[in-house]
Amino acid sequence: MQLFDKKFSGWINILKITITIVFLNHSNLFAQCTVGTTQVTWEAAASGSQTIIPTVGTAGGPPAAVTDAVPGCTNVNSINPFNFTTTITEVVGNVYDRIRSGTNGLYGQPYLTVVIDNFDGGCTTCDNTTNAPYANGSRIDIRLNFQYPVLLNNLRIDDIDAADIARAPTGQSSFQDVVTVSALSITGTNVPLNLSLGASGFVNLSGQTATAIWTSGVNNNLSENDPAGQLTVSSSQAVTSVTISFIAGSSAISPAQQAIRIGTIDVCCPSLIDITGNVFNECNGLSDNIINGTGLGNPANTTLYANLVEPTTNRVIAVGTVSSNGTYSIVDVPVNTTYNIVLSTTQGVVGNAPPSASLPTGWTNVGENLGSGSGNDGTVNGILTGIVVGTSNITQANFGILNNATQTTVTASSSTTTLCANQSFTLNGTVTNGVLREFFPNISGVLVTDLTSNATYPNSPTVSEILSTTIGPSGIADNYGTRVRYYFTPSTSGSYQFVIYGDDQTTLSWSGSSATSPLTTIASIPDWTNVNELTKYASQTTASLSLTAGTQYYFELLQKEGFGGDHYGILYRLSPSTTFINIPTAELSPVRYSWSGPNGYTSQNLSNTIVNAQPNQSGIYTITTTDFYGCQKTATVNVTVNALPTPTAASNSPVCVGQTINLTSSGGTGYSWSGPGGFTSTLQNPTRTLSTTAMAGTYTVTVTNAAGCTATATTAVVVNTLPIPTAASNSPVCVGQTIN
């Protein structure tokens, strides 16, 4: 730049006016974002003067960091407006002139002027006689710290100039502008920059330093708009900060004042990706260590937000709204950094600190995980941490939350888990007992249709809870609706009747099977009854229902409260009883259950006996429960039905008295023989010596296999008696006669 008395003489009177404004109204620097190009230029203030605020207590500097907002981009769900801070530091010498610096400075708006001279507090009367020299090598740094990594498209620094001219009465005074530019990546490493000049001849480039050419006795006389004094900086790698070092060159003689102008800042995201994920109703409470389940968007009629947070600055970068199916998207996310996502009922404000993680009443965080596999991020708090963003879209940024009303339990057991073929075993399941009560507040009217026509019904109750009884709470509020749902499983077959009471209008419906089957209204109260008032209306009592023990039947009560007393209740009686009583909790459940198992086995009963079991019925038996929100839970029991041995029994029958009986068997690992005359043996192939006719008969062998299962085989043994011989002759005979 030129010396002050030549180049900026036209600004003297203006500066005398703006000086007063500066001290009265120190405002922040601002930058403007042009949507679509993300170009940033310095912007004038609406009123007053813009300057860089100095550090309190230090006359003139070093100045404090100034946050530059980007008001041109106002979409709260966008990465814009983003923030960056401008920090100016006096590195060598107290030479920063806060009066002439800023967007109201020597070059005027909308550019940023940075001035160094011999008055640290800012020269207010600088002229030919008062601008004393300062040391060569004096330096100030202008650092731009970006909120997220950006690419530099065009950072332009103007009026890099040099001059050596005579100034009366102090003699020679000159200046030489030296500008060095550096940048850091998100990891804190240096990023190579591309530097280019608008025109050649007046500035030398060496690496990332631009030095104005100084010639003794020569005034280059470059203006701020002269391309020969303009330096353009760009980057092909993402940067998080850029430092512009403005230095008084070593060639100048008695420098008095010099300045540069930061003309434009055009930055761009190096790359943008999308982050998508799910909020699941984690029905199993993460017992399988996998975040999954059914999609869930607006629990308790409360919208959830996925707030993307840059953890270093702890500021919201973007916000995604969780949709009705539980999915969310956060679009146009800058890459090459790490983020957190805060799941909250509060929508974060971009650029501000994030809201706390929160869920509606009745809901609990059970885990967060990036990816579809098992595991979580380590802390169950509604904040998914450590999302490392590269250049590809991020998917499966998942949250698991659990409705307290879905925290049901199920177990499976068997009377025996190991048995032999032809034996029996009994499967036993246990499930949560009780009824599901859902509360819908702030609904006027006394009719059930006032409830069912409301926008919050049926999917957005504010309270969902499991109660142990069909007798509801009373005196809790006005202008609300209630839905009570349960499966009734009678322990005894027979003819049942149900009766209701309620305030105000109340209905009871049922289906012969599940909650998804068509409902039939079987009892109703047109306006209201008192507590336990069971005979006010004939419609309060159902007709007789023939129900089978062990079978589940779905019931649903709707109650609409206007004002005054509020209550409801359901009772039953089993013929031939004439007295209505409370329904036992053991016969109520908020879940539907079913068994499945090997060889196509299914059952809808909680307890099941399988008789004459065979080996093909071995395997895992699973009981599955499904609650009214579609959440399924399972429990298993492994039953092994071992095959029986296939025994053989044989002998060397028939034998004669006195001979040895040889018994043989096969087909197992253990043998037990029994036979006539109290014979027993544990040998596989026993013998009986010196047989007698008493040893004849049926021999039975019990064969045991490795599984401990037994089977029998028999063999018949015949013991023949010895013959009784006779001998005779025609003795005596004479010589020559025949002996017979």
Automatic annotation (TrEMBL):
Supply the PROSITE patterns for this chain. Answer: PA14
Which parts of the sequence belong to the PA14 domain? 430-587
Database matches in InterPro entries: Ig-like_fold (IPR013783), PA14/GLEYA (IPR037524), PKD_dom_sf (IPR035986)
Q: Where is the signal peptide?
A: none
Q: Which SUPFAM superfamilies match?
A: PKD domain
Q: What is this protein called?
A: PA14 domain-containing protein
Organism lineage reads as: Bacteria, Pseudomonadati, Bacteroidota, Cytophagia, Cytophagales
